[in-house]
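Consider the subject:
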Amino acid sequence: MIKVGDTIPNVTLQEFSEVEGNGCSIGPNPVQTGEAAAGKTIAVFALPGAFTPTCSAKHVPGFVERADELKAAGVDEIWCLSVNDAFVMGAWARDQKTAGKVRMLGDGSADFAKAAGLTLDLTSRGMGLRSARYSMLVKDGKVATLNVEGPGKFEVSDAGTMLAQAKG
């Protein structure tokens, strides 16, 4: 499992863009994690799936609500990672009103989750291999803090914990 001090996995995630601009076309666009994290402080949080109960009711809304506070604490970007495709992440972004606050990044083949050693096998529930629920503060591509949830828990990967760590 990835740990504090490690470099984040350098994989390609997908982000759905609603509008053209800043070199992005409408639709799925590749995001190379190593390049995208270089020189920035990023609050990354990952969860098992888009539109799932805890993820939609608590995890994403907390980061949306506290986005301005996180940015004031020195966070350049907030990334939400899930083992879903860019189209699902785009629809979820619209539903959760994340525009301008949280980048919704699809880890469709679980490449980031696997490389980080943070997978969750939900095959018995018909969901296959997913990402564990966690958050991490990443500074210039390196893990500064890591908060991994126990199975079925939502206690340490929330926006409030991340905000305290970003301020600390």
The beta strands are 12-17, 27-32, 41-47, 77-82, 103-106, 119-122, 128-131, 134-139, 142-148. The chain is about 30% helix and 30% strand. The domain at 12-167 is CATH 3.40.30.10 (Glutaredoxin). The helical segments are 33-37, 53-65, 67-72, 86-96, 111-116, 159-167.
